[in-house]
Amino acid sequence: SRVYLKPRFVMFERISFLLFGSLLSCLAHGETLQNRWQELYQNTWQNTPYALTQNELSRYPPALLKSSALYPDFKTFTWHDLRLLNTAATHCQSIKSDNAKLNRAIEFELALCRGKQLKPDWFSSNDVMHPAGGGYADRYLKKYNNIEPQSLMAIAPFTTISNPINPLHRKLGSLSPQGRDALLNGYRAWLEADTLWLGNESGLKAVSASVWQPLAQKANLSLQGENCAFTYSNLCIAERNTSTISWQIVLTLLGGICLAFIARLSFLKHKQRREKRFILQLLTHELRTPITSLGLTVDIF
């Protein structure tokens, strides 16, 4: 029986070796793609000027640059706090709270309803975010739209990025809220339409398609493929040459062959055990018959 199974075990070992080798090749292929993507990133970065340096970004409150700035701050305030604030704003009535930040918000709402103008220093010395969402500066400028230019310039940096008077709106306005959030949260790349945005600790760069697409083609990489070798932020990174056989398909086929062979081997072993059992039963029967006949002969004598 060992001689009968040995060739199959040898074949199984060969298939396992091929499968393992294919897996290593696939992993090496993935590492190569990542290396090529990193090289593409570096080449693209070096060929593009800054859209916004980190020094420029640091002049503005980070919270106002993210999409979450437009929504109520439930980490600091409760629904009860927001109802108190709404009551103070609606009835122009002073309400005291144990929350110091809420008291400042009530002070702000009372100033608006009483027609009191605030100095630019008020916005720089207080929290920039309104409890109900948006910046204090956004709500203030919506109320007073005839502020003198000097005061307007001083207040503008404390508005949210979605406000056209924010100095960064022109530079980052073409980015979607998701793209801005991704880059500000540390992602180093984001594709917005045909513009590839890159970022690192020194700032942000907006790379036009005329720059990054030839470099990607030279690296044989696609950033907008359907079958991704790997993803990064909203990029789908894969080889540009679609005629190349997918390594995942190769692995799947080899895995299927391996499983089929194991199933076949198990079936043959089970069949062999049945044949052995049948032969043993047959031999037992053949031995039992002469013994029985001999017993009958002895009884006769």
UniProtKB/TrEMBL annotation:
Which keywords fit this entry according to its UniProt record? Membrane, Transmembrane, Transmembrane helix
Locate the transmembrane regions by residue number.
Answer: 245-267
Is Membrane set as a keyword in this record?
yes
**InterPro entries in the cross-refs:** VxrA_SD (IPR021821)
Q: Which residues belong to any copy of the Histidine kinase VxrA sensor domain?
A: 28-277
Please report the name of this protein according to its UniProt entry.
Histidine kinase VxrA sensor domain-containing protein
Which organism is this entry from?
Vibrio harveyi
